[in-house]
Write a structure and sequence with these properties.
The protein is mainly beta. The chain folds into two domains: about 140 residues; about 80 residues, Laminin, CATH 2.10.25. The chain has three helices and 21 strands. The chain is elongated.
Length: about 260
């Protein structure tokens, strides 16, 4: 049987450095075509990937498993249209990330023609941490009555703690705020046979801190939207723009 610290190394230290992906969800209120460009960097884009999508009325489309380079700036550019009924020739949505990390970009409101918009940067299976650079094999962890925490450390199953994970956790022990969950976490580089865990807070989207007490700093620049209309319908286009800001149907933070 593997000595527990050696098992920790087996669970947590592969050769790769990080592993994650970008996922984009869009919902259009009108039939239109869209071109989506993903690229590293902002001013001089590199590693550009281009996708073309067609939308029907009230249709939701998803792009997923888009490779990302963590710890670097990146850009998402969406060009869509036309919607001739409202004089819209094309619209651009631009999102810039100065530090690519695990995050969700989900504005409360979005301009039509899109009625839903979410960008998620997620870790691949068994990768954890804000840069998806902490490996922890959750399946193997479960075989020894452990789980992988959000940070990629090993801990006891939810609501339990202690060297043998036989002690029940009571919520007030961590004093987690904003719906954070109190969990156990074992030292990652333990070199002894003694496994003493500590209690930490796992925070929901949008909150950070030892007790999830503060809102997360916005690492992504706010999205920018530009609309371009047909000259012959400039008046209609102006009215459409002024009335086009609607509630984002895909906003994930409304459920927190």
């Amino acid at each position: 049987m593997l000595h527990l610290p050696l098992l920790f190394l087996f669970l947590q230290y592969p050769l790769a450095q990080s592993s994650g992906y970008l996922e984009l969800l869009l919902k259009s209120a009108f039939p239109l075509n869209a071109t989506i460009e993903f690229s590293d960097d902002i001013y001089f884009p590199t590693n550009k990937r281009v996708y073309n999508l067609s939308f029907g009325s009230d249709e939701l489309r998803m792009l997923t498993n888009i490779p990302v380079t963590f710890r670097r700036p990146a850009t998402v550019l969406i060009t869509s249209g036309p919607v001739e009924k409202f004089g819209l020739k094309f619209e651009t949505i631009r999102s810039e990330r100065w530090d690519t990390r695990v995050m969700t970009i989900s504005p409360e409101r979005i301009h039509l023609p899109f009625s839903g918009f979410v960008i998620d940067i997620k870790c691949d299976r068994n990768w954890y941490g804000v840069y998806c650079d902490q490996y922890c094999n959750n399946n193997l962890a479960e075989t020894v009555n452990r789980r992988c925490t959000d940070s990629g450390a090993l801990g006891c199953p939810l609501y339990s703690s202690g060297p043998k994970c036989d002690r029940q956790i009571h919520g007030p022990e961590c004093d987690c705020q904003n719906k954070g969950i109190c969990v156990s976490s074992f030292p990652k580089n333990s070199s002894s046979g003694v496994t003493v865990d500590e209690l930490v807070c796992e925070c929901p989207y949008g909150y950070v801190g030892k007790r999830c007490e503060r809102k997360e700093y916005e690492y992504a620049a706010p999205i920018t939207v530009e609309m371009h209309g047909f000259r012959r319908k400039s008046g209609v286009m102006e009215q459409f723009y002024n009335r086009s800001l609607v509630v984002n149907e895909l906003n994930v933070f409304q459920w927190i």
